[in-house]
Amino acid sequence: MKAVYILSLITIMCWGCTRDFESLNADPTQFTEAAPEASILAAVKNMNARMADYNTTKYWDLGHLLCQQANRYDVTDAGMWQTFYQGVLGNLNQVLVNYSSDTLYNNRVQVARILQAYAYSILAGNYGAVPLYQANNPEYLSTIMFENEDTVYSYVLTTLKDAAAKIKLNGDKLKYDAVYNGSLQNWIKFANTMRLKIAIRTQKNMGAAARQHIADVMANEANTINSEAETAKMSFENVNGNENPYFIKYIKSNQYFPYAPGATGQAPKLSEFLFTVFRSYKDPRLSVYYDTVPTANRFILTDTLTSMADDSLRVVTYPIPYLGQPKAGTKLAGWTALAGLPDMVGTSNINSYSNANPIIYQVGRPLIMLSYAETLFLKAEAAQMGLGGSQSAEQYYYAGIDANFASWNISTTLRDEYKARDGIKWNTTGIGFNNYLSLTNANISADPYVKIWVQRWLNYFPDGGFDCWCLERRTRVFRLPPHTNPGGNSSYSANPTYSDVPGRMSYPISVVNLNPVGYQSALKELGVSRTDDYDIYQELHFAKPYTVPDWNNEPASYDYRFIQKWYGNNIQDLAVAAQRDGFRYVITQTYHP
Hints:
This is Starch-binding associating with outer membrane. This protein is mostly helical and about 600 residues long. Helix content is about 40%, strand content about 5%. It folds into two domains: about 5-20 and about 30-245 and about 360-530 and about 540-550, Serine Threonine Protein Phosphatase 5, Tetratricopeptide repeat, CATH 1.25.40; about 290-355 and about 565-590, no CATH class. The protein has a three-stranded antiparallel sheet with strand order 6-7-9, with no helix packed on it. Strands 1-5 form a two-stranded antiparallel sheet. A hairpin with a 7-residue loop joins strand 6 and strand 7 (about 315-320).
């Protein structure tokens, strides 16, 4: 695919608008004729650019993948509404309006419908009730009503099924395709796998209909994503305007340290809770997903080690190469047990926390929309439900881990060692570390669903922050630590000093001001008990009911075991590591217990 041609198509899409100003009833923001490739390409690029932006400003924090200092738990709209309804659905609607009746464009119309359903699944997962049937319809300009979340998901599932079935492999081609390079078979597989994903997400609210979709997809696995080559991903390249969005934000802008020395912005940091999970199970992905901290900035740990030379203990200090940033950096008033004690983790130098592996900021790195590994975890859950599959849930589960490790080029030796550990191995229980405030832990039960969900979460780094958030709300697989500086709409909650993961995004103020009747219909569909939608814990229909703990009265106490014994239990192991890795350690005390 030629980048210059792609950008030319987008330029044509943006400026090929109608110049017929004699018709005052025509919407001047809508073009009347454009090649379907231009509209589809613009929709895909607009959607993935916005999803990448929301990763950096919202989803990474909500999904506990990375921490961006200024973002916190902000769930206010920051452009998604406009981007999706205009830049994504508006473009796709042009394809449907202009070409649906022409059989020469059948396949391109079906691809547009698949992407339309995909976009609506994201909108419903963010907001709940959204405009569907009256959206982008010139007959409804000042008052656009909202559809119930269940109605939107039903539309998504039936559209994905119907569009996939109507693609004809010997028919017209999508000539310029930034996702699948024109492969119609892969678009069919994406649609069916996406249907499996949404049906699994909506089991609670869609009931038997969701289970039927799951069984239907699992009965024909050949039409799902079945290899890494079939992973859905948006391509990027080293051409101005078509670079990876993370590269544009963190590298090209020259505004973020450490990628721009002296910059005031800080690159996103490893999340403390995810770090605790990685440490609990010696997960080799820690060193693949995240970068080591430069030696000069490393956190200096105080530890007590044994010695193979005698029976005395050594109190030592040494630097550790990774550290996760806590959500609870501000301490709540009720945590009196912490008073007067040093907070080794929460108050350390910001540069002591680990950055993401620079590989995710590469200029040409694609953005993952739906991966092969995720597909296997979806199938594992479907098989565990008894809804079909050519393999057992256990087999799909291990294959999903294999696929994830392979995608990051992690050795099979490290992979197999990881899969054999308690908590990761099927039918075993894992006892993980407490987080550093002893409020939560990284335990993994023997429950097969829990194992599948944990690995899905770990697989979503770095592009699947939205899916992490959906998974958390649907399953509550972990008791996540609270955010004690949450931001967003937290000031509207009963306890504004802390927040659990929010339940939904709030609508933009433009909806409130410009579509008041529609906004009231949205509040009705959401079932809110107030006159606005600013309750951060408002549960969407697919989410598991959840009661927010009274975190202020939880018995917080520091627990640093998750970072202790980094290089082993004895001083000799530390000495070997120091010589190998080039760092210094200091023995501050020797004593007999």
